[in-house]
Amino acid sequence: MLPQRKIIHIDMDAFYASVEQHDNPELRGKPIAVGGGQYGVVAAASYEARKFGVRSAMPGRMALEKCPQLIVVKPRFQRYKEISQQIRTIFYEYTDLVEPLSLDEAYLDVTENKKGIESANDIAREIRQRIFEETGLTASAGISVNKFLAKVASDYNKPNGQKTIHPTQILKFMEELPIEKFYGIGKVTANRMHEMHIFKGADLKKKSLEELIRLFGKSGNYYYNVVRGIHMSEVKSHRIQKSVAVEETFWENLLDEDSVFKQLQLISEELEARLSKKEIKGKSLTLKIKYKDFTQYTRSKTQEVYFAGATDFYKTAQKLWELRPFDKPVRLLGLSLSNLNTQEKKQISVQLKIPFEEFE
């Protein structure tokens, strides 16, 4: 029998939008979008806005068409990072095995936890209560034996809810799960599966491993396993850092080179600040440009010696900018440093076998 773990996936509810509504009571109960506007893209939408079909990554103009009364709020990423750190501090009171996925979600392995609480369900409920008491925000949680199932479960009773997929319920749950609810299956793949009459997990389960690999390449092996509740990826608390990046999405598109260079200077300084905190250096610098029409362009430079700092980043970024293929309004700029001086460290993770009855 495979070893059983207790994994929790915590996902904040409409995080950016909820922060704005919490900090500004006048926005509560109203449809708001963080980012967007006529020329931007929605970074997050409140649940009130979602009722009108407004979604993250949607062009702002489309969002306003769907919801004319939409209130557009300028993003405050520093504030979101601040609250995210508060939330992670809570996580670490329960376990050191925390794998953040973004500012608003993370996996926690609580197979063994610092408080000695046997029920993963109770831990998740307690963490969600702590988050609400300390930040005023709500979170949803999924609990199961692996990361895939926990991720799927956290979306099940949103917002402000949680769901446990008990080991004895896994196979039935996965057979009944709509294919578009599978984590890792996007809209395009889901539509393709629908054309093959694959609508639920039970339909996917009928396909052999060989057939799935033939149809979907390497992803076929993933689909074959997860529909059977098999996902062996561990919660990685100390990921090997392969790059450090700073990106900035602009409230208004940048229309001239002077504005671009001013932002690249600021981004270079921020990148240096992040690197200096961790004593990280790198030899490859990549410039990322996203245009108003969402086309994206990247160009890198690798050198034999480590980049020296902000001035070095900025001068190199200017040269990479000169190689751009288009002269169009810019909505995002980013610089990332890779080929770092960090060394890989092997981790030994011990998985304990937990009786099913202890899971809930």
UniProtKB/TrEMBL annotation:
The keyword Nucleotide-binding does not apply. Residues 7-186 form the UmuC domain. It is found in: Cytoplasm. It comes from Kaistella yananensis. Belongs to the DNA polymerase type-Y family. This is DNA polymerase IV. SUPFAM superfamilies: DNA/RNA polymerases, Lesion bypass DNA polymerase (Y-family), little finger domain. Signal peptide: none annotated. Keywords: Cytoplasm, DNA damage, DNA repair, DNA replication, DNA-binding, DNA-directed DNA polymerase, Magnesium, Metal-binding, Mutator protein, Nucleotidyltransferase, Transferase. One of its GO terms (molecular function) is DNA-directed DNA polymerase activity.
